[in-house]
Saccharopine dehydrogenase (Spirosoma montaniterrae), 404 residues
Amino acid sequence: MAKVLIIGAGGVGSVVAHKCAMNSHVFTNIMLASRTRSKCDRIAAEIQEMHGVTIQTAQVDADVVADTVALIRSFGPVLVINVALPYQDLPIMDACLEAGVHYMDTANYEPKDVAKFEYSWQWAYKERFEQAGLMALLGCGFDPGATQVFTAYAAKHHFDRMDYLDIVDCNAGNHGKAFATNFNPEINIREITQPGRYWENGGWVEIPAMSIHKPIDYPEIGSRESYVLYHEELESLVKNFPTLKRARFWMTFGQAYLTHLDVLQNVGMTRIDPVKFQGMDIVPLEFLKAVLPAPDSLGENYTGQTSIGCQIKGVKDGEERTYYIWNNCDHAETYKEVRGQAVSYTTGVPAMIGAMLMLTGVWMKPGVWNCEELDPDPFIEQMNKQGLPVQERVNIPLPHEYPN
């Protein structure tokens, strides 16, 4: 049906390439490109062996718009799936506009020199994509991505008004490493060391990092200590669902992980400003990334599950209602299917689904869009078909306090 260009060959890029190949009736011609072509070649060989599908590979520096434009024009895709670094979102969007192709990503833009992530930079592209007759789909992973679809699904089917939203994200897996991050270490550590933030009564409340926490019970996993972070989907959700009185994002962390992170912060290894070392400028966090285990190396022998969902309270037909919608994903099972761990899988599969819905015309309209602005039903349907089965419960107790 369509050619797609995937940019990024890390853990998520590998899963996206595998799942696109497994849906070759939609993704009829696939190219995987990265700064390091050998990583793409390894994934391509794996896909050929496991799924019997041949994909093309290429080298590209996605920071350089002209190089990306040249690759797009030579390959001729309909859509670029950006699973590179968030720093590269804007250059790739610029390249898509210049080359006249659709765009999607899994995480919003953040500048390399400031640990700040928000949608304003990408939302500013809305008119340019509309005028070009092109679509840009933002943040189509799991969180962001599926969590926004879950919220839109709740609004469509279960509520007349949503008042309280808590996104809960647990990784109860064990990879056997003393310290490792499940996605790009540089992005992960920047994200969780920033002040927390949540929405309440029409404004943002900022808190010290990891200062609000409590145990939350996760299906098939049990109780895990969960911490309030700021996460990008909150920005678009409170914009698109203005009845929300409070919206928060919770994520679990083990004590060993937090202890390692405290030590790394205390000795300056999480800094993002350059320091002089042997006459050269190095960024400590970039050096730390180089010595930590790569996320795409964690899949083998990874055990346990992830559990990610939305817990919502609101009103339906004049009555108060609670609603919990979630997915649990098993690390060992995802490794068998696509040679990836569940954190990469839960990001990569929704990216493939979003791309599929765009290419089949179900989610195709010019402009710049977040996932909750589109029909959630076909996305949920594909999650159930593509390895991320959705569970839901209505009117069960939720582990949160709600003002009277």
